[in-house]
Structure prediction request, 199 residues.
Amino acid sequence: MSYYYNYYVGYRHEGKIYPFGPYNSFGKLKEVISKSRSFASDMHYDFYPIKEAEVSDELREEFEYEDWNENKVVNVKMLPIDELPAGSYIKKGYFLIEDVQRYEDNKIVDFDGFYDYVTPAVYASMAQNEAQFGKPERRKDDYGEWYYPKTASDYMYYAYPDYKSREYEAEMIRSVAEMLEEYSELPDEAELLALETEG
Prediction:
């Protein structure tokens, strides 16, 4: 059974929290982004539970359900939009050429192959050492097996979008929140929020 993390946009006004969108043409609230546990980041840990006193009638209408004890509950968490993770979801650095080739050949959206990565400083040091001393000789690993260490020539500079990152999820939510704010009118002094449900 799949477990999903679902994100919406809401706002807080005068101590109450309301859903803000996005809504489809039939007036149904839709997720900005919905990710199964297998493909989600850990961003959901940043969200705070909404207190019962903060639940508006509108929020209750969208999210209320009966739990296994037949109690009516609204299990929604929130995070102010300005507290969402910052940074780019475009990952840059030196990656194995063979991994880049596999990614380029297959055009995999949720590619998991970029584990072997070196920073620009480490790459520069590797290249300098190889120019000075030549490529490293083969070595034995902890199990007594021979292997050839990776060299600078095995890597290339590359940039790719990391769709499983917290930065990607945050950017999607922030973009939709900005769009909704631009085309809708919020009450004065309302605070934009990201809302999260899971299950």
